[in-house]
Design goal:
Strand order of the largest sheet: 9-11-10-14-15-16-13-12-26
Number of helices: 9
Number of strands: 26
Helix content: 10-25%
Structural class: alpha+beta
Strand content: 25-35%
Length: 436
């Protein structure tokens, strides 16, 4: 990470939680319960299977932990302002207990009272969030003094609130020698792009539109600049004029510079045996800082995007009811054309990390497997839209079972980095995720 990227980490992360925590929320989970609530009963069978397989949670536990995560997110927004000397972050532990970290400071007693009143457990830590953020700035200053051969080794930085320290990302984990003030920091491997699937057979055809709708997680093809790709649809939404759109990954647009023009890349539905009719064009595409794109539906395909569903391609959907902010330890599930539903927990939020030649800022990481073709797919917590799949450290493997074994042998675990949906909405006034 060049020093300029470290500066971005300080700028983009200065007012946000930077966390890295445990990678499995299921270690101490309660046994799966036979009964389910009305809300849990509405979850599709494929999602329930993934929740039980990957998280060892019942559908109700999944929804309860997701709700607790959003309560922590709301508390953090207030506590960061009201208790700046003591506040040290929020997270869900392995058992799903909501935790508020607090350091010694003039406002600690008031912060303890507020956290306990909200029903959260307090954990004493050595350093406040503001103190840890000061270390990020010190890292930035140190990188400015280093030759490029050293500075470029640092590919990202986050604050590990759970362990109350810094975490650095590097391509060569063993080759980075840190200064004394960072001796306690951990160094972890950088992720790689969750690549779309290359395709050479994406050509427009003139056939009647299929009657079925297009939902988040369904497969689509993009064609632009002579390049074809296969990706997964993200969340259906509406633009500032109320027109139907889909919010997917920026790196799924093969001709990003032309987005929003007459030369914009085209999007096509994918059907068994080949490419379906055109469904829209790329109205906007962003790759650096935030990885997302907006597909504007063609008039003839508009009705296909007028739903709030997310699913395994071809299966029953989960209905999206709103948007959410990522919280460490909160349960999450993603859908994509290659691996369908896989679940895990949020492991890091508001991080800055380099992926190839680009930088993801304000991103979050999860302990989920995502493979080539899952790019652009949806990430949900409970029934809330959370993010867009962007980069994975296991995208090169053929199936998730192989990825699990290889990463276990290497002492790692699958990791999927994502762009928060709320960051995309904030950057595009008037853009909304469909909730009905």
């Amino acid at each position: 990470m060049r020093s300029s990227i470290a500066r971005r980490a300080a700028v983009f992360g200065s007012a946000a939680l930077l966390l890295l925590g445990p990678v499995a929320a299921s270690a101490q989970a309660d046994p799966v319960e036979p009964g389910v609530s009305d809300q849990a009963a509405k979850l599709p069978a494929e999602l329930i299977d993934a929740i039980q397989r990957d998280l060892s949670l019942s559908p109700d536990q999944y929804l309860e932990h997701s709700e607790l995560g959003q309560k922590l997110a709301e508390f953090a927004k207030i506590a960061r302002t009201q208790f700046p000397d003591a506040f040290a972050g929020t997270w869900l532990d392995n058992a799903g207990t909501p935790i508020v970290g607090l350091a010694d400071g003039a406002d600690k007693d008031a912060a303890v009272a507020a956290a306990e009143k909200a029903g959260f457990q307090v954990k004493d830590v050595a350093q406040s969030e503001s103190s840890l953020q000061a270390q990020v700035k010190s890292l930035d200053g140190w990188l400015d003094t280093q030759p490029p051969a050293v500075a470029d080794l640092v590919r990202g930085v986050a604050i590990d609130i759970v362990n109350n320290d810094l975490v650095l990302r590097a391509d060569n984990v063993g080759g980075l020698q840190l200064p004394d003030f960072l001796k306690g920091a951990r160094v972890v491997q950088s992720p790689a792009t969750a690549a779309p699937l290359p395709s050479t057979d994406l050509t427009p055809i003139a056939e009647p539109l299929p009657a079925d709708a297009l939902l988040g997680g369904d497969a689509y093809g993009s064609l632009g600049g002579g390049v074809g790709l296969r990706c997964s649809l993200g969340f259906n939404g509406t633009d500032s004029s109320g027109g139907p759109v889909n919010i997917t990954a920026g790196h799924c647009d093969p001709n990003r510079d032309a987005a929003g023009t007459s030369e914009a890349s085209e999007a096509f539905s994918l059907v068994p045996g080949g490419t379906g009719p055109r469904i829209g064009t790329f109205a906007k595409a962003s790759l650096d800082i935030h990885d997302y794109s907006i597909i504007r539906a063609d008039d003839s395909a508009a009705h296909r995007f007028e739903n709030n569903g997310v699913r395994v391609p071809g299966a029953a959907p989960v209905a999206i009811t709103g948007t959410a902010d990522p919280i460490v330890g909160a349960p999450v599930c993603k859908s994509g054309l290659t691996t369908g539903f896989t679940c895990g927990v949020v492991t890091s939020v508001a991080q800055t990390v380099s992926v190839g030649e680009r930088t993801l800022a304000d991103s979050f990481s999860t302990s989920m497997c995502a493979l080539q073709g899952d790019s652009g797919g949806t990430i949900v917590t409970g029934t809330l839209a959370l993010g867009i799949s962007s980069a994975s450290n296991v995208g090169q493997y053929p199936i998730c079972q192989v990825a699990d074994v290889v990463t276990f042998v290497l002492g790692e675990s699958p990791e999927l980095c994502a762009t928060p949906i709320n960051e995309v909405l904030a950057e595009n006034p008037g853009l909304r995720v469909r909730t009905s």
